[in-house]
């Protein structure tokens, strides 16, 4: 069972208390953007087998959105962090590097 | 261990009642291998990545319909060991949209005589599939689907609760929370033996001279000037003129090697079977509102399918709470299963697209084709998918796959089957 710690209320909650919100740090292309950009935003996904960054919501708790970094192959959780950032913070990336050297996700590593 | 298997003939014998009788008189020493285990050649006309149902069916129809027999099917693990061996074996074609109805009905109709075509008993059992309507909205939705199916030439009808009870007496139709208000009934839907479908196709492919190479992982896709020229594998480089990627849950991974992106997310879908009991249910029942579907296998096990995990993963296991939700819902509709013990549970990695319809398409890399995105419902489509994919790869165009191109996402030309797919697909 997947257990994530909500960075806002500090509760370690299992997946039944949470709602998965899909891939994190998407660029939200809007009206006036090109077809390719809009397709990219709406449909194209990283879908990695390994390190992944996602949005989650603590629905049956504080109700707040947050980010999580985890491994899609092993379900290992590397850390959770605030929703108010455009990319993963340094400490989360360092925690991933410590466990998965040479990881890559979009242009991050 | 003997150094070679005694009296193993290289050519394959035809399966028949006479063959069974003949072998009965000679201690079953004359059966030949169902498919070969060759070393990869340097070059093939076509390489298919993935020896699951869809990959093998593609290879089979390339040979049978288009005369392309210099084909290799590469498989990372073992033949049919992915989702082909992990589904709940349901076959139906009662979809809403025309392109879906066309390809799923093609598949269902090919299943009808697949055993004869392959000379391999795939145990297709057109026992009938019913999708329960348990809310007013579902009644409207399924009536609409029945009307659409009538126009598409797919035989389905909307039936009354009394008929549901008659067809499936073990069902509690007055259910406490979700009474059965009717059902969408497809009498020629049913089940088939999932492994036999992969094995039957593999045997015929091998007979046509194709190479099925197991334990051969593709680690890279080689291209020159935007054109595919071959693959790098754990057993060396292999060249090809055309490449077909048919790897379901791992499509994103292979697409990454080939240098393009896909609108796909991979999640675990799980299923479970009970201990075997005497025959009590001779139809397939799906209940989308309560997220569960059930049929009885020939061995007597109740085969139960549940929901997908809510988040991306590649664990082939699935979340425990989904089992609880599925079983809780089914116990309500089938009170008699409440005392059954569950024997096995497993998961498969399904590749889900934004509109819940598959992708059978050319790709940005020339001569590289992809067949993926079947999500939670690929097994039923295997023959139709292989038929269309083979035509697409051989001739560059197939009426069956035309609407399922990758470009539909940028053009907004979706084939929305999220309702037809629901949980049970």
From TrEMBL, chain A:
One of its GO terms (molecular function) is sarcosine oxidase activity. InterPro entries: SoxD (IPR006279), SoxD_sf (IPR038561). GO terms for biological process: tetrahydrofolate metabolic process. It comes from the Bacteria. Signal peptide: none annotated. Pfam families: SoxD. This is Sarcosine oxidase, delta subunit family.
From TrEMBL, chain B:
Pfam families: DAO. One of its GO terms (molecular function) is nucleotide binding. One of its GO terms (biological process) is tetrahydrofolate metabolic process. Its cofactor is FMN; FAD. Residues 46-90 form the Rhodanese domain. Its EC number is 1.5.3.24. It is an enzyme of class 1 (oxidoreductase). Its main location: cytoplasm. It is found in: Cytoplasm. Keywords: Cytoplasm, FAD, Flavoprotein, FMN, Nucleotide-binding, Oxidoreductase. Signal peptide: none annotated. It catalyses: sarcosine + (6S)-5,6,7,8-tetrahydrofolate + O2 = (6R)-5,10-methylene-5,6,7,8-tetrahydrofolate + glycine + H2O2; sarcosine + O2 + H2O = formaldehyde + glycine + H2O2. PROSITE patterns: RHODANESE_3. GO terms for cellular component: cytoplasm. Belongs to the SoxB family. This is Sarcosine oxidase subunit beta.
């Amino acid at each position: 069972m997947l257990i994530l710690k909500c960075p806002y209320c500090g509760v370690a909650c299992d997946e039944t208390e949470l709602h998965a919100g899909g891939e994190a740090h998407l660029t939200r292309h809007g009206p006036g953007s090109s077809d390719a950009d809009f397709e990219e935003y709406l449909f194209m996904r990283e879908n990695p087998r390994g390190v992944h960054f996602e949005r989650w919501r603590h629905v049956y708790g504080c109700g707040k959105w947050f980010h999580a970094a985890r491994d899609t192959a092993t379900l290992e959780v590397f850390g959770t962090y605030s929703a108010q950032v455009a990319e993963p913070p340094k400490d989360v990336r360092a925690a991933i590097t410590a466990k998965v050297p040479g990881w890559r996700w979009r242009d991050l590593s | 261990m003997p150094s070679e298997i005694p009296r193993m003939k290289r050519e394959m014998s035809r399966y028949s009642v006479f063959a069974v009788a003949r072998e009965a008189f000679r201690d079953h020493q004359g059966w030949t291998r169902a498919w070969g285990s060759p070393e990869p050649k340097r070059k093939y006309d076509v390489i298919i990545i993935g020896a699951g149902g869809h990959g093998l069916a593609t290879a089979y129809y390339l040979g049978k319909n288009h005369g392309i027999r210099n084909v290799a099917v590469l498989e990372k693990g073992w033949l049919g060991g992915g989702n082909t061996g992990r589904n709940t074996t349901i076959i139906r074609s009662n979809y809403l949209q025309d392109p879906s109805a066309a390809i799923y009905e093609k598949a269902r109709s090919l299943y009808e005589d697949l055993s004869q075509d392959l000379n391999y008993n795939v145990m297709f059992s057109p026992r009938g599939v019913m999708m329960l309507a348990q809310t007013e909205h579902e009644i409207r939705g399924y009536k609409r689907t029945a009307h659409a199916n009538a126009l598409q030439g797919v035989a389905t009808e909307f039936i009354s609760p009394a008929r549901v009870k008659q067809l499936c007496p073990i069902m509690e139709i007055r259910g406490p929370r979700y009474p059965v208000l009717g059902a969408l009934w497809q009498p020629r839907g049913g089940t088939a033996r999932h492994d036999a479908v992969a094995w039957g196709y593999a045997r015929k492919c091998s007979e046509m001279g194709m190479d099925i190479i197991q334990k051969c992982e593709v680690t890279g896709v080689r291209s020159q000037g935007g054109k595919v020229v071959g693959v790098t594998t754990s057993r060396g480089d292999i060249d090809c003129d055309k490449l077909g990627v048919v790897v379901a849950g791992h499509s994103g991974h292979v697409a990454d090697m080939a240098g393009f992106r896909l609108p796909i997310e991979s999640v675990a879908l799980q299923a479970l079977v009970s201990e075997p009991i005497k025959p009590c249910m001779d139809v397939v029942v799906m209940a989308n509102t309560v997220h569960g579907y059930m049929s009885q296998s020939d061995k007597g096990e109740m085969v139960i399918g549940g929901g997908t995990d809510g988040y991306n993963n590649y664990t082939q296991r699935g979340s425990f709470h989904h089992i609880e939700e599925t079983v809780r819902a089914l116990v309500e509709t089938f009170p008699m299963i409440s005392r059954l013990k569950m024997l096995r549970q497993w998961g498969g990695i399904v590749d889900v697209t934004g509109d819940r319809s598959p992708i059978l398409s050319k790709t940005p890399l020339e001569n590289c084709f992809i067949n993926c995105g079947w999500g939670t419902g690929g097994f039923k489509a295997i023959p139709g998918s292989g038929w269309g994919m083979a035509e697409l790869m051989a001739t560059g165009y197939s009426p069956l796959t035309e609407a399922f191109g990758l470009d539909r996402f940028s053009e907004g030309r979706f084939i929305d089957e999220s309702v037809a797919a629901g949980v049970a697909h």
